[in-house]
Amino acid sequence: MKHNSSDNIQDLQYFGEFGGVNPSISDSSTYTFISAKTMFDTFEGNTEGCYLYSRHSSPSNLYLGEALAALEGTETANVYASGMGAITSVILQLCDTGDELVSSRTIYGGTYAFMKNFLKKFNIGTSFVDITNIKLVEKAITSKTKMIYCEAVSNPLLEVADIKALSKLAKKHNIPLVVDNTFSPLSIAAGKLGADIVIHSLTKFINGTSDCVAGVVCGTADFCLRLKNVNSGAGMLLGSTLDSLRAASILKNLRTLHIRMKKHSENALYLAQNFEKDGLKVVYPGLKSHAGHTTFKTQMCSEYGYGGLLTIDVGSLEKANKFMELMQEKNLGYLAVSLGFYKTLFSAPGTSTSSEIPLEEQKEMGLSDGLIRFSIGLDNDIHRTYEMMKNCMEKLGILHKKTMSI
Predict the structure, then answer these.
(1) Which domains does the chain have, with CATH numbers?
(2) Is the backbone of residue 115 left (phi > 0), alpha (psi -120 to 50) or beta?
């Protein structure tokens, strides 16, 4: 019988404290103990199932963590107050002073800035490589390398990582493979493909309503417990704690992720195919012209499609800005960073979410001034959306109207 990640989530049922169909929300920052010894044991990390302090764990956060572990097929998961809270905790847990990590060259700008600039404080070095070239990745690994880091589908260029090949390489060198799967939940099950640790910014598709910031680390029970260790856990000591009310809200939204991802992907594929036919420079993993199309196809769960992100290069930043402003004026979406919302979101990443990357490096990796990143929404009539977007492009001279020949 076919059984995928959405089934794993569906099969999780929690009764609320009073029999509610949603689990009760734990609205406490601290928890009482029947005996002093149990408190001592909890501080020592010897007692499972006891709550100490909400920065360590809470029932609401554990419910959400269990659901996200089911999503990625890992033993357990820890939730955080942001995606960056999750990313930084993992890196600082795995790397000590003098260590190194190998990372994809195209990653979220905040992750890039943390690796390139902030880690210098700890004398931790990062080698940025083309993650699609396994030989280059292996060449960058040294005796000091403590992890390989990548995004399953990269931000913003939508490069596709071969997770199985990277996992094989990581195991060969006895280092963990850490995958940020924010762009492709359900479409790619990174944990099942061999990633040791899977990270998501829950802010995006998983929550889906652009009303909170949160993150998760999915991994082994041992690693997640180490992150929460009161003496040496980066997750515990850095203090990126997700509020219980937000955890409960995200858990409810997670229940519809499978429906939303299908529609995001269906709409994005329709637009990508049609704009490519119109002669635009479109990048979308679902197009055969995409360099990573075959890689994505071989590791995807096909019913959820190729994701909701696509890029279009309109030639210049001036054209990109005018086009985005006009689309917003026509109620086609919002000129805003982030992704996974019910409305389409669009931005020029070179001057926004990837602005932390120096211009010369942006050019080297193919991030041009005119590139627009689209997070395609849940529009019911996507053909109408296409016609309206096309009309905006024609008005600005990005596309030229085709005249009928008699």
Answers:
(1) 5-251 (3.40.640.10), 258-396 (3.90.1150.10)
(2) alpha
